[in-house]
Amino acid sequence: MAGYNPITDHPVYTFTPLPHQATNQTMETNTQDKEPTTTPLINRELSWLAFNYRVLQEAKDRTVPLLERIKFMAIFSSNLDEYFKVRVATLKRLIKLKKKTRDKLSEDPADTFEQVMQEVKRQQEEFGEVFREGILADLRQQNIHLLTENDLSTEQQKWVQTYFAEHIQPHILPLLLDDTETHFFLKDQTVYLGVQLFDPKEKDLKPERFSMLEIPTKKHGGRFVKLPTEGEERYVMFIDDVIRCCLPALYPNYTRFEAHAVKVSRDAELDIEEEVSGSLMAKIQKSLQKRETGYPARLLYDPVTPRPMLEAIMAHTGISEDELVEGSKYHNFRDFFGFPDFDLPDLKYSPQPTLVHPLLEKEESLIEAMKKQDYLAHYPYQSFDYVLRLFEEAANDPKVTAISATLYRVAEDSAIAKSLVKAAKSGKLVTVVVELKARFDEESNIFWAGKLQKAGANVILGLPDLKVHTKLGLITRNEDGQLVNYAYLSTGNYNEDTSKIYADHALFTSNQTITQDVEQVFNFFIDRQHDKKFKKLLMAPINMQDRFVDLINREIKNASKGKPASMILKMNALQDERMINKLYAASQAGVKIELLVRGICCLVPGVEGLSENIRVRSIVDRYLEHARVYIFHNDGKEEYYVASADWMTRNLSRRVEVAFPILQKDLVEQLRAIIDLQLADDTKARDIDNNYIKQESPADIRSQYATYEYLRKLIPEGMEPIRKSK
């Protein structure tokens, strides 16, 4: 029996191939059910890094508009920051455990850490090459020059010095690192300059000193400074380099300087013990306060930083040698989200205006429309406004008696949360499940939980031992003395901001069987009893995993009878060992399996005798693929499920998740058409080794663009296709 590793969330075996490596190892199998007795797995941490490398590939791809490539650089950097704050920080905690405890893990976390750091170093080096040799060169071709302090003309230097004195210097407070044991705290995700001072103007001053200063990105309003344009030539600088240019103004007693950037990422794992009797909100708030002072997961430094400066920084910050990670001259590339666009639309993606929904757009009342049939919405291609309209209508409708919703990640100025507040104030029974453990969105969720409670809503602050990840809404209406339910089920959050970039599906339905099941989910939030029965929905942790296993077993049974058997499974991550075992068993039985996995994939495809019937592909493009879709052939009577859940142990066992069926024929056809486009993608699809997939007969299909055109063609002639927000 393998040991359990809390880092990878599954039992760990010695078989942990690196990403970009195929394996021909065949595992022993149990002849009765065809499941491997041990599970070949790609290491979860390295698989995640392989996903982030796909983001870097988009930054390298010169067919992607230049300013969009810069955003992919920012996404790559932001992803890696979070990875270090959470995953690497947890690895380091495990490394610090006593040897007896570590031995029980069956895999030395130090070995995993070493492999992770090797791959991170490789990617960071390539990141630097992409920036220097790709991005900067292409910017110059567009007459955009990212200047350093050494590139300035005399006139530009004067302008920079004036700008620095007026806009930046008032926000800088240099701190000298003297010979005392003064402690200097480095804020999380903040860039600092370590400055080495030489050649004092007065003899009684030390010939060499070290200083630290925080780069005031937030107070300045961004990381970049636009310089005056000269003809068609456009100029921009990092604030870092503006400061380097003006160091004499900060240290007037010295004449020569070297400045190198550093940045710390601190442990962001909450590690909350969820006791029923405790106040979860208070614990979350306490944890948020600690997050800023968590122990360092890494200190990024400029590779040319002199060793004496690094030693001075370590001595005065408490950072150890183990936490040093070689970076580049500039850190926090996520700040490139704010890189100036210079009003050059040709360097961005061509506009994809949000489409109307061909049926919902015609309806004055969405609730009345839901009586007639089900509707499936596809974001970001179609407008998210229909969701906002639904909750606003429910808040204003005197016949609506109750509204229930789960809030996982909401927009900062959430229109849906405002509608729920309005409904509660008007006397409707409003029940809202607010997940306080939505990492990095806790503060926003706490804010709305307080507003809703004050308005009189029944606010459920998550559940002990379970994170509420499902995206559900339930509206109850008194219609001629009868209570009628209407439900909204989605793969994405109630977030009008992320709906513009996350690709999700959502169902509007009054199907009585489904709405009764949704009601049961909300009953679970209230009474926390696991005895709930569902006719259509799959709910984690109650019946979802077992039901998915049953559906796979049915395909295995059909294959064993010589019938056609197949599955198309789309998710963000595949890591759960039980589900991987079942997929291996299905492959061995002859079931054809197509996997669309955007992120982590611990399954090893294409291994003879084990997984030769499994193909894995990942699509990274303009939008973030966020939907989960599970399709089972069922001897020609296909079953379709759309879900909030990935096939990870945490989703199937330690979260509240829902998968819902798509029953209406026209909606099934829509969903299948979109999935088929993704399976045919030969432009942005990659295999498990991050190689671009080319079809035998290239069709130049870019699925996200093809999906937009497909949905556009569903709009009747004569109807305005572009949704105008109200």
Automatic annotation (TrEMBL):
Active site: 469 (phosphohistidine intermediate)
Keyword set, alphabetical order: ATP-binding, Kinase, Magnesium, Metal-binding, Nucleotide-binding, Phosphoprotein, Transferase
Binding-site positions, ATP: 79, 502, 598, 626
Full protein name: Polyphosphate kinase
GO molecular function: kinase activity
Function text: Catalyzes the reversible transfer of the terminal phosphate of ATP to form a long-chain polyphosphate (polyP).
Origin species: Pontibacter amylolyticus
Domain Polyphosphate kinase N-terminal residues, every copy: 42-146
Post-translational modification: An intermediate of this reaction is the autophosphorylated ppk in which a phosphate is covalently linked to a histidine residue through a N-P bond.
InterPro entries linked: PP_kinase, PP_kinase_C_1, PP_kinase_middle, PP_kinase_middle_dom_sf, PPK_C_dom2, PPK_N_dom, PPK_N_dom_sf
The EC number(s) this enzyme carries: 2.7.4.1
Record's catalysed reaction(s): [phosphate](n) + ATP = [phosphate](n+1) + ADP
Residues where Mg(2+) binds: 409, 439
Gene3D superfamilies the record matches: Endonuclease Chain A (3.30.870.10), Polyphosphate kinase middle domain (3.30.1840.10), Polyphosphate kinase N-terminal domain (1.20.58.310)
Residue ranges constituting the Polyphosphate kinase middle domain according to the UniProt record: 155-339
EC main group: transferase
Recorded family membership: Belongs to the polyphosphate kinase 1 (PPK1) family.
A matching Pfam family: PP_kinase_N
Residue intervals of the Polyphosphate kinase C-terminal domain: 366-528, 537-695
Cofactor(s) of this protein: Mg(2+)
